[in-house]
Amino acid sequence: MSTWNYSLEEVNSFPKLNYNFQLEIIKRHRDNDLKFKTTNEIVLQERSYADIMAYTMLSMGSYNSYSKFIDEYWETCKAYQQQYACVIYLSGRQNCTPENDNVRSINKHYAKCADLLIRHYINEFNENNNVLYVDT
Question: In terms of CB atoms within 10 Å, which of 37, 46, 54, 80 comes out highest?
């Protein structure tokens, strides 16, 4: 967020800014994935495309004018998720509160909603069913 000079709350308050932010998030994640595509090393990513889709849906899903964008974003996230040999999902947001850093929501109800949506997209996206859920 620091490179954008906006807080997450500000980004989420302006649909066009949020739209650009979501495009940047998926681009950065994809660029990072491509760096490791040719390596034989085991690489762990902090987020999957299911996470990215869930947070995009939570921040933009109520805007009807972005419905087509969200449908296309879903297709892109699902396609990119296929590159992963395995997804390990670590739950636990409801058991801890992140630092109030103006990036992550500290609300436990929002965390639970995000958790459920991420799990939903993981199940939708992972055609190989190679998912390990770790409840902490």
Answer: 54
